[in-house]
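Before anything else, study the sequence and C-alpha cells given here and see whether the fold suits the sequence. Record follows:
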Amino acid sequence: MECPECGAEYKEGDRYCKKCGASSSATINCKKCGVANPAGIVWCQSCGRLINKKEIEERNKDLTRNFFKVLLSIIFGMLTLIFCFSLFFEG
C-alpha cells in the first residue's frame, strides 16, 4: 500500500509509515466532493473521482508490459508454425 502523506510504500499490516510516521489508517479527502476515503483507495467511493493517479499509472504500465509479452508470444508462435509448414510441404 501507499502512504497517503508521503507516497512511500508500506506493508499491509503496518500501522504507521516508516518514512514519515503517518498513520496507515488515515483517510484521503476527495477534492471534488470532500468525502473521506480510506488510505490506498484509487477512486472516490462517493463521486468516483480519481484520487490516486500513481496507482492507475502503475496498472497501465503492467497492462502494457503484459500486452507486449502476449503479442511477442503470438508472433513467435506464428513464425514457428510458418517455418514448420514450409519444411513439411517442401519435401
Q: What stands out?
A: Helices lie at 53-90. The mean pLDDT is 82. The CA atoms of residues 57 and 63 lie 10 Å apart. The chain has two domains: 1-51, 52-91.
